[in-house]
Amino acid sequence: MHKNRFWTIPNLITSYRLVMFPVILYFAISGKETLFTIFIVINFLSDIIDGFIARRFHMETEIGARMDSFADNLTYVLAFIGMFVFKMDDLRPHLFSFILFIGFLVLSVVVALVKFRKFPSFHLYSTKIGGYIEGAFFVCLFTIGFFTPFYYLVVVWGISAAIEHISIQMLLPEMRSNVKGLYWILKERKAEKNEKK
Q1: pTM for the full predicted model
Q2: How many whole angstroms separate alpha carbon 183 and alpha carbon 197?
Q3: Based on the domain organization, do 3 and 47 belong to the same domain?
Q4: Considering the chain, what is the average pLDDT of its residues?
Q5: Residues near 162 by Cβ (< 8 Å), separated by ≥ 6?
Q6: Do 14 and 7 form a contact (C-beta atoms < 8 A)?
Q7: In 61-124, which residue ranges form alpha helices assigned H by DSSP?
Q8: 53 and 81, same structural domain?
Q9: What are the Cα distances from residue 15, in Å, to 2, 50, 81, 98?
Q10: With left for phi above 0 and alpha for psi between -120 and 50, is residue 123 left, alpha or beta?
Q11: For residue 39, what are the domain limits?
Q12: Does the residue 164 lie in any domain?
């Protein structure tokens, strides 16, 4: 992985998501649901595209991984704000589970900031899959409507992924990017212990 290379296509796509944050936030705050929907969908699609290009053409960088995680967090902040602004009637019966879900996501970031003084950039398999599920749910929500079983799939998967994320942070001595998951961390630790014997 190239650590300091910035000018890559994936990083430029990620930069677009960062630049668009205040614009999409304005659409939400000003009640422009159609524009909000169009651009939040573009954000989710661009997240899939930049990751695919980075992996397929070996353009992964340390700065890109960190930027991507930060842009992901901002996109989800926008999506949650959009849910509160435009879809509160659908959300109200499920408010406790939604707040619990957000709480676990926030906690996974807070733990990283407290322990490592950095935003996390693990890109776990569970969070990648969860991101696709959440993105599909948000697109469905803002285009077709609220689908309760889909919503609870998002919540259960998201909380499970956040617990895995926090567990890995507790085990690692320093922040790393592009960690596959808890299974691989435990396997790595076991190998290290065997080497010391």
Answers
A1: 0.83
A2: 22
A3: yes
A4: 90
A5: 104, 105, 107, 108
A6: no
A7: 62-86, 88-91, 95-116
A8: yes
A9: 18, 10, 21, 29
A10: left
A11: 1-86
A12: yes
- Say how far apart CA 34 and CA 23 lie, in whole Å: 13
* Cα–Cα–Cα angle for 69, 123, 146, rounded to 5 degrees: 75
pLDDT beyond 90 at 118 = no
The answer to whether 75 and 134 have CB atoms below 8 angstroms apart is: no
What are the tokens at 195? 């080497």
53 and 9 in contact (C-beta within 8 Å)? yes
The pair of three-digit structure tokens given for residue 149, joined into one six-digit string: 């079983």
Phi/psi at 96 (nearest 5 deg)? -60, -50
The SS3 of residue 2 is: strand
CB 141 within 8 A of CB 85: no
